Amino acid sequence: MDPAQWMALLQQGDEEALERLLTHYDGMLRYIAGGILDHPQELEDCLAQVRLKLWESRGQYDPERSSPATWLTALCRNTAYYFYYERESVTTLDHAFLATIQTKAEGYTIYADLCAIPQEMLRRHNITFKKIPRDIARL
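Below the sequence we write its predicted structure tokens.
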């Protein structure tokens, strides 16, 4: 099978096709995201978001408009990442922080200590909150 056939199966809800596509394009996605992101954890988070977006938007793929590789590239590049971190204080993802965002993207992944935005609003605006892991001890 080729990627176009896997995309057709994915559109029908085939989870194995999802795995095959992600395995097939893993190197390409890592190359793209690795050129944008600095840290290994950011890269893994980005790939997890691509996986989720691929599954959730599988019905929107149009083989007449793009190849599977082109579509996956767009999914990978169209998420903006923000790290709201202050060494000496706890940060909170809130409306004031959202007002500072100027980058237009299809989705946002925002790292902070706390989140004061209701889950429904995050979903509506395609925002993923990630807690900064301050409690992990250094080895």
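The helical segments are 3-11, 15-24, 26-34, 40-56, 68-77, 95-98, 119-124.
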